[in-house]
Amino acid sequence: MKNFSETRIADFEVEINEASESNSRTKHSWLYNIKYLIVGVLFGIVFVKAEIISWFRIQEMFRFQSFHMYGVIGSAVFVGMISIWVIKKFNIKTIRGETITFQSKKFNKGQVFGGLLFGLGWAMTGACPGPLFAQIGTGALVVIVVLICAVAGTWVYGYLREKLPH
């Protein structure tokens, strides 16, 4: 049986300190979590207005007919790169004052297979995990099937993780 404070993830060990362990188990009222709902709704509105959830935009991307989605994804990667650089350069800490550390991760063939499978599912359904809820919120109720399949796929991966190539 695994110790809760030590979990094996991919090729490196992650230790969970006792403080964060107790913080994750703290019970809060539903009002405490309202901020996440607000951010999620704003995130969904941005996705809708930017046409990121549009099945047609996603198909244009996979057919190399439009730069729109590549521009969105590329700008997100650029903002992420700058953010990580700023965090490392200025030793930015979390709101609770904890040091932010980045772990090196070894590349393996499972990442290639996973990426191909993810891309295939994205191309077939016109949806990736980010905008699923925004698509459902706009009335594309058939996307509920995609959401159920995404949750099922995550569960299957978690169940078979130890047997998969890492």
From TrEMBL:
Record keyword Membrane present: yes
InterPro entries listed in its UniProt record: Sulf_transp_TsuA/YedE
- Keywords associated with the record: Membrane, Transmembrane, Transmembrane helix
Please give the start and end residues of each transmembrane region. Answer: 34-55, 67-87, 112-134, 140-160
A Pfam family annotated for this UniProt entry: Sulf_transp
Protein known as: YeeE/YedE family protein
Q: What is the organism of origin for this protein?
A: Niabella ginsengisoli
